[in-house]
Design goal:
13 strands
Length: 340
């Protein structure tokens, strides 16, 4: 079987490494080109010595030519994606962007959240948001996909899966989420993410200013009236994983049976959604190194509390990107993501 060739632009980072590892086990994809300006000309197994099974590749620079018969995954900073995505699309390639650059359809909200001007906003007419549980059919025919954020995925799915019950939600929805350093900006050597500042510590950051908040609002309520979301992220002294607690108030009586039916249906039909009987059963350790989103809920009066967990590097990034690649190129959606 002829394999589909893939390039990862920005493969030297945490998400790029995770996707490289996943692609190495996929029967349909072949990773043929990797880039990193920081480790240019180094062999991939020199950069990732813990992954001895990786392909025989050497890192290129971001601007080096990429073979024309190759699909593109951008695991690059926002400003780099803004520059590179239009170039690759103009060449007629399929592109998945893991940055936040092409997620929001409101330019003012984007520029406020990301703090730089969006000079390629006309491309938003082409992009499909890469959340298969919501946009599976569009993803099958997509050429340009914007991969969701990790916190955003943890919050969007439980809200969106409520379906028509969302019309009875009273805003704001409160999202209180905790992440390991790999999902909270720990891609750099900033001192606030260093071991000495994380170990035996716990803190909130980007309170009501996180760039995933408008993403949650746009896609959590897609197809219905958008409600306000208030989001506070916290930094856990662990490497990977997100646990989110979502507080939803309804304007009138919504029964526990109605909520159970919505989430149960999702768990039965979605390969990577797992429903637990109680929210206390949802834990980070159960989703680490998997592409699952786990959820559990409880109701008290008109208030619904949903707890979700996912691995920010897998379902929150590289795993979801592979899920999208599978859909875009016609492979089984779960290929390379589950062990049978």
């Amino acid at each position: 079987m002829k394999k589909t060739k893939i390039a990862i632009i920005g493969a030297g980072g945490l998400t790029g490494k995770e996707l490289t590892k996943l692609l190495a086990h996929h029967p349909g994809f072949e990773l043929v080109h990797v880039t990193s300006n920081q480790v240019n000309e180094k062999h991939i197994r020199e950069v990732f010595p813990d992954l001895s099974h990786l392909p025989d590749l050497v890192f290129h620079k971001h601007d080096d030519p990429v073979p024309l018969d190759v699909g593109i995954v951008l695991a690059t900073p926002n400003e780099v994606s803004l520059e590179k995505a239009p170039e690759f699309l103009k060449e007629g390639r399929k592109v998945i962007d893991l940055s936040g650059t092409f997620r929001l359809h409101n330019q003012n909200k984007f520029e406020k959240a990301y703090q730089f001007p969006h000079t390629k906003f006309s491309l938003m007419d082409q992009v499909v948001f890469g959340l298969p549980e919501l946009f599976r059919e569009k993803l099958k025919n997509a050429n340009f996909v914007s991969n969701p954020g990790c916190f955003a995925t943890a919050a969007i799915l439980p809200i969106a899966l409520l379906g028509n019950l969302r019309k009875e939600i009273q805003g704001p929805v409160i999202v209180d989420a905790k992440s390991g350093v790999s999902g909270a900006g720990g891609r750099t050597e900033e001192i606030k993410y260093a071991y000495t500042n994380v170990y035996e510590n716990f803190r909130a950051y980007k309170i009501l200013t996180h760039q995933h908040e408008p993403e949650m609002e746009e896609y959590g309520f897609v197809g219905t009236e958008e409600k306000e979301i208030h989001f506070t992220p916290h930094l856990l002294p662990i490497y990977r994983g997100i646990l989110a607690t979502i507080y939803i108030s309804f304007s009138k009586g919504i029964s526990i049976e109605q909520v159970q039916e919505k989430f149960q249906t999702a768990a039965e039909n979605e390969p990577f959604v797992r429903l637990y009987q109680t929210p206390e059963e949802v834990e980070i350790r159960k989703v680490q190194n998997t592409n699952y989103l786990d959820l559990g809920f409880r109701m008290k009066g008109n208030t619904l509390v949903v707890v979700t967990a996912l691995d920010n590097l897998v379902k929150g990034a590289a795993g979801q990107a592979l899920q999208n690649l599978n859909l875009m190129y016609g492979y089984p959606e779960t290929e390379g993501l589950v062990t049978l």
